[in-house]
Amino acid sequence: MIRFVLNVLWLIFGGGIVLAIGYGIAALVCFVLVVTIPFGVAALRLALYSLWPFGHTLVPKPGAGLASGLANVLWVVLAGWWLALSHLVAGVALCLTIIGIPFGVANFKLVPAAFWPLGREVVATP
């Protein structure tokens, strides 16, 4: 029940909707540019994860190989480090207030996902 309340508060006050819309627009752009469809899938995964971060975690996907590693290097150069930096800055800013600490922690959880998204999957935590 606490995770549900935190997720609803995250959507309203923590910026979850704004993040999801941003990642969704990036996914649409990647789908239009046919070559970047794998990045679009990763952006959609990030959009869903940013909508409901409490109660979920990111784990390595079994079977992800060299291609996803090389694509991640390209992702980091083009977009990943900007996204990770923005989540890091937002997390630090939110942690400055006592009420914002859970939302700051959620932003810190999104940093590795934004930095290195391919070859990972979002799973529910027990």
From TrEMBL:
Q: Name one GO cellular component term.
A: plasma membrane
Source domain of life: Bacteria
Which residues are listed as membrane-spanning?
Answer: 7-25, 31-52, 64-83, 89-110
> Which intervals hold domain Inner membrane component?
5-55, 70-120
**Transmembrane helix as a keyword?**
yes
Q: Does the keyword Membrane apply?
A: yes
Keywords on this record?
Answer: Membrane, Transmembrane, Transmembrane helix
Q: Which NCBIfam families match?
A: PRK11770.1-2 (NF008740)
The protein depicted here goes by the name YccF domain-containing protein
Q: Where does this protein come from, organism-wise? A: Micromonospora globbae
